[in-house]
Amino acid sequence: MIHISSDAARHCIHLSNGRVSYVIHFAAGRYPVHIYWGKALRDVQDNTVVRRTGRKSSTLDLNETPLDRLPQECPVFGCGDMREGMLQARHADGTEALELRAVNYRVEDGKPELPGLPSARGEGARTLVLTLRDEASGVEADLNYTLWEDTDVIARSAVIRNTGSTPVTVEKALSFCLDLEDSDYDLLTFQGAWAREREWTRRPLVMGDQGNGTVRGASSHQANPFLVLSRPGCTEEAGECMGFALCWSGSFLANVHVDQFRAARVMMGIQPFDFSWTLGPGESFTCPEAYLAWSGEGLGGLTDSFRALIHGHLTTGAYARTERPILINNWEATYFGFDEEKLLSIARKAKEMGVELFVLDDGWFGKRDSDNCSLGDWTDDLRKLPHGLKGLSEKIHAMGLKFGFWVEPEMVSPDSDLYRAHPDWCIHAGNRPRLENRNQLVLDLTRPDVRDYITETISAAIRRADADYVKWDMNRNINMIGSAYLPPEKIRELPVRYILGVYEVMRRITAAFPQVLFESCAGGGGRFDLGILSLMPQGWTSDDTDAWMRCRIQYSTSLLFPPSAMGAHVSAVPNHQTGRVSPLATRAAVAMGGTFGYELDPTKLSDEEIEAIRGYNRRFRDWQKDLFYGRFLRLRSPYETDECAWMTVSPDGKRAAVTHVYRDGSPNEIPGLLRLRGLDPDADYRDTDTGAVYGGDELMYRGLPLYGRQGDYSCRQFFLEKTEEA
Ligand code: DGJ
Description:
It is a single chain. The protein is of the alpha+beta class and 726 residues long. The chain has 3 domains: 3-307, Beta-galactosidase, Chain A, domain 5 (Distorted Sandwich); 326-467 and 469-514, TIM Barrel; 643-722, Golgi alpha-mannosidase II (Immunoglobulin-like). It is 20% helix and 30% strand. It has 13 helices and 39 strands. Strands 6, 7, 8, 9, 11, 12, 14, 15, 19 and 20 form a 10-stranded antiparallel sheet that branches. Helix 7 (448-465) runs parallel beside helix 8 and helix 10 packs parallel to helix 11 (584-591). (2R,3S,4R,5S)-2-(hydroxymethyl)piperidine-3,4,5-triol binds next to loops.
């Protein structure tokens, strides 16, 4: 039962779903300050903002105790708070002061739409909309707080409105601020690079600024819009922690500032660097939604809450809660060097292996024999596919396989008919030379004609191919920011308008083809965020398909994203990114930690390998729903040990799958015990392969025997089922 109550005498609003509480107080009756977020409280009797003032904040004199000392819900620049704020606006006279006072609040069932932005659905939710107003300028801000019955996540977003009579330029529009009482936390961030995305990095907070962010125009390989604060000593299963994730795919800022009182201020939102947005009278700007999860049961508790949010309220489309086809993608098998016969030979063999979907990657259109041409020309290359996408798709479908293909709709190659016809359709800075990256330029998605062109050409290709699946790639970031369409005063709006344009075309195309499975990609995991996930239920996690590297990448990614969101494939050895050779069984076990498929040439596999693969496919089909939608638990970290282990408990609690991978085979090791979690201590579980039976208590408190190490990158998988007697 969601409860949003106000207490006029204490100037408080208390939001609770019975498990967590969030309490806001109005200092001096008008400035919203943060009192509490954590385990559910019955009530807050005392609203002293202890650490900062030692006084009841309702009696504060703001001249004596400026906003600088208060833990605020919506700090702004220019009116007493000397720390970085959440909002900043420049008025027509050039001044920047804002004094936002609470003027109103309302409670709604569900949650408000955020126009143009992806956001979670509001079933089973209630929302507090708190309105603040700067009387002198007429600038207003709505702060939205949504709570759900079934997950301990609070969604926060903000809408800035100009109700005045002159234009206002918004210089900073972050989605939320959370001012904590102290800074006794570790900070976890997930930064990386191409092929080693989202490295798990944990360090104690220190005074000053720390965090994460990007100015690349995409959430990026290098950063991820996700932060965690955990109390020192917090583990996977115990301790207090908070997770903050942004539903936004462009440049962002995720910052934690530890101030003069050693209190932490967490803020996230659209990157303010190189951003501004002018609001004419009556206009408004909506900030993307952020999700704040609190757990008193360790990092695993955050994963549980985010999973409930993602599966229950965020992902959309026919595949959001279902099984997905096991796929084979030809990229690492052929790169650009294929013809129809080669593709059909891969598909035939894949069908024999038990694969269900054939995916044709880059190189099928224009005259694309390498990455130096044809992006934007979404016409079939009849040299490689004499019967076009349609002919190939018909043959693949006739084999009993589904068919899908790759596109990179946001890009244009200078060597393309599209570029020759519309040289002004790309992002470019006036007459300066256009800076290419991977031989390509970024289309200006602020332009309606570009958005229509993408929607029409990609839709035509999907129809022509009668496609069941589309992989939507994006392989470069934005620089030389400029547009032949936007007027000079709106160029600083371009990075945001670009992402709004991406969302619009994605929404139009996915809505037109509800039966198609869409997988996002950005040179691997270069735009792996909740914004894109809300439009496409799975994303290519990384171009690194090496099993051990994938253990690291998937382990850290799993803190926020469930396996159903993580594209993962078995590839050939030596691995194309690392040169490493790992056993087929390990590559398969690691790919089962995600959406599962293949990225290799099956015509080059031995009969034994094909037979083994048939077994993996049978296993995955049997367990897929449990692996995707069950409870995911991290058991051993590849960032702290030379092992990686995780498990999934099925939604009905009757089955559990456990995977354990070793990095180094080391001689004369004593067999270890792997403690499991999330089982029923009173039940017995049977290993479905060996028939061995263990008590749930025994598996959790003593551990599962792993036997000896078997060599570099070896792995063990256990598939356990509750015995009937239990
Ligand atoms: C980058 C992707 O991550 C790869 O999987 C592949 O699709 C290539 N692009 C194709 O150019």
